[in-house]
Write a structure and sequence with these properties.
The complex is a heterodimer.
Chain A lengths: L1 H8 L3 H21 L3 H26 L3 H31 L13
Chain B lengths: L1 H18 L6 H18 L19 H19 L4 H5 L3 H19 L4 H19 L6 H32 L4 H10 L5 H18 L7 H8 L2 H26 L3 H27 L4 H21 L5 H30 L10 H4 L1 H15 L5 H15 L3 H27 L11 H19 L2 H4 L3
Helix pairs in contact in B: 1-2, 1-5, 2-3, 3-5, 3-11, 3-14, 5-6, 5-11, 6-7, 6-11, 7-9, 7-10, 9-11, 9-12, 10-11, 10-13, 11-13, 11-14, 12-13, 12-18, 13-14, 13-17, 13-18, 14-16, 14-17, 14-19, 16-18, 16-19, 17-19
Classes of the chains: A mainly alpha, B mainly alpha.
Chain lengths: 109, 462
């Protein structure tokens, strides 16, 4: 166990930054490319979790606990957002029987 | 902090009033509660301006926050006065509207007074989540559904950017505290590249929330689909609050000269794009509400001028501009609600002949349009004047010339409504304007003219 912790701490900070940036970009691409509201929503969650991971890495790097506390805030508020977001998606599904965002094209100029 | 606590408790109280079927008491209780909160806000006014931060450095309630909180509370008060009989028509659950608007207001006061980036995030989230619900509150209405989903997806997306930006700022500086970040910038010889990436991502996140081009594409749809009263709230109070947050972050933490060289060009591009896209697209609109949505994008462009010319005068410039814009927009939305309710449609043709039948409504709407366009002797002119003076004092001459040209385009589409009201005749009946509306219209018009004639008392405030 000791050796695993040591080897994890041996990972340089740059690797975390790079990894989280890639994860975040995958989330961004998902939001931009996918057409299903639920998949878009999952991609947003991926973005938030990339941020959480990076926050924890920075927090350990600086030896400062506030980053980890921030992660809890992000999780709590992401959960609130999920509740509201799923409610909105359910509302749309009841009215249109679809979660595809291409159906949503009534508002145009 | 007593203002935040008062408004949160007020929201819960209103929710309980709804539970006990006290529908008549909802509006009066909310308005009285807001007045109490306003009084408590003024109580924090500090002439010496050396306020200490509270909650272990989480919030700093200085004169800047007092001014913006007061503006937010007053405009919410005016908007809620328009809500009499409005919510009853569109939904059965009236208490929830007031509650959620009050929760959004709590978030707004937090982001007007944050001193730690975690509070910025929490405030923005409280405000946004409330707004997602408010946008989609007409459950069976298709446009409202669509607006809610678009707003929600875009809002959550932009929150991701803002969070990533905050994280990178934290990674480079080792703290979420605004003063600590400034100390990091001042003390380090070479600023880490991830700090710059953090600034860029925060700008993107905040511009999404404020609706600056090219991150504006959700604005017109959401503003059109949401109930008009909520649109009024979003395009005035929320926009002002996001700018207060923007200004606070950049003024306290990121105002050093080396950093300004990095982010000022970015904001110049964003401001010019907002002006261009907002104004040009607004010209082609046939509907008043959508025209206001595009005009709000162009106003974001003008507000960004204060950040481009960042100085100690930026506070009062943003405050004055935001106040002028808020008051004028409230008049416009009040008039829109009257027309929409009784005609059922908000295209420009429905304003024809209003000048003869409803002189008061037409006059106040005219003054508000003149203020939005920036004609002298109205508040909007003073706002634009301060923005342009700031930009010229930092030698952004080309940008200012461009903005003036855009302001001229703005005059064209704002005056379309005025022309329709006074110079086009139409067979129409007089519209009934409720007393509450008359009060809001007259008070806001007087405020517009008073700020336009004597800007000193509000410009030297902060």
């Amino acid at each position: 166990m000791e050796s695993i912790t040591n080897s994890i701490q041996g990972v340089p900070l740059n690797h975390y930054i790079l990894f989280c940036a890639i994860l975040f970009s995958i989330g961004v691409m998902g939001v931009l490319i996918r057409r299903n509201a639920i998949v878009i929503f999952m991609s947003v969650e991926l973005m938030l979790n990339a941020v959480n991971l990076l926050l924890t890495a920075f927090s350990v790097h600086h030896g400062d606990a506030s980053g980890q506390v921030f992660v809890f805030f992000v999780m709590a508020l992401a959960a609130a957002e999920v509740a509201v977001g799923l409610a909105i998606i359910v509302m749309i599904y009841r009215n249109t029987s679809s979660t595809d965002i291409n159906v949503l094209n009534r508002l145009k100029w | 902090m007593d203002v935040i606590i008062t408004i949160s408790l007020l929201a819960i109280l209103v929710l309980y009033l709804g539970l006990f079927k006290a529908a008549k008491a909802l509006l009066p209780v909310t308005l009285v509660g807001l007045l109490v909160a306003l009084g408590l806000t003024f109580n924090h006014w500090d002439l010496a301006n050396n306020t200490k931060s509270i909650f272990s450095g989480m919030l700093l309630f200085n004169n800047f926050s007092v001014a913006f909180s007061a503006l937010a509370i007053i405009s919410t008060f005016l908007i809620l006065m328009l809500s009499k009989d409005y919510f009853e028509r569109i939904s059965a659950n009236v208490a929830e509207y007031y509650t959620i608007i009050l929760f959004a207001l709590t978030g707004i006061i937090i982001i007007a007074s944050y001193h730690n980036l975690s509070m910025l995030f929490i405030g923005i989230e409280i405000m946004s989540v409330s707004l997602y619900i408010l946008t989609g509150i007409k459950k069976r209405d298709y446009a409202s559904n669509e607006a809610a989903l678009k707003y929600f997806l875009m809002g959550a997306f932009s929150t991701g950017f803002l969070l990533f930006g905050i994280t990178l700022l934290y990674g480079a500086s080792g703290s979420f505290d605004l003063t600590e970040i400034r100390n990091y910038v001042a003390s380090s010889e070479e600023i880490s590249p991830i700090f710059y990436a953090g600034i860029l991502l925060s700008i993107i996140g905040l511009c999404f929330k404020a609706g600056a081009a090219p991150f504006h594409f959700w604005t017109p749809d959401v503003y059109e689909g949401a109930p008009t009263l909520i649109t009024a709230f979003m395009s005035t109070v929320v926009k002002t609050a996001v700018f207060a947050a923007f200004l606070r972050l950049f003024y306290i933490s990121l105002s050093s000269v080396t950093l300004q060289e990095f982010w000022v060009p970015v904001l110049v591009v964003l401001a010019s794009l907002s002006l261009l896209i907002g104004n040009i697209t607004a010209v082609y609109q046939q509907h008043f509400k959508r025209m206001l949505a595009y005009s709000s994008i162009s106003h974001v462009g003008y507000l960004l001028f204060a950040l481009i010319a960042l100085s100690s005068a930026s506070d009062s410039a943003v405050f004055l501009y935001a106040a002028a814009y808020t008051i004028a927009s409230i008049i416009a939305f009040a008039a829109l609600m009257v027309v929409q309710k009784q005609v059922g449609n908000d295209s420009f043709d429905n304003f024809n002949g209003l000048g003869r039948k409803n002189p008061l409504l037409a006059l106040t709407l005219t003054i508000s349009m003149l203020s939005l366009a920036g004609i002298p002797l109205t508040a909007g002119f003073i706002g634009k004047f301060m923005m342009f003076t700031g930009a010229l004092s930092t030698y952004h001459t080309a940008l200012t010339v461009f903005a003036v040209l855009n302001a001229i385009v703005g005059v064209f589409y704002y005056l379309r409504v005025v022309v329709a009201m006074y110079f086009k005749d139409a067979e129409r009946n007089e519209l009934a304007v409720p007393v509450y509306f008359k009060i809001v219209l007259v008070v806001s018009t007087l405020a517009t003219i008073i700020i336009g004639v004597y800007p000193g008392f509000i410009a030297d405030l902060i």
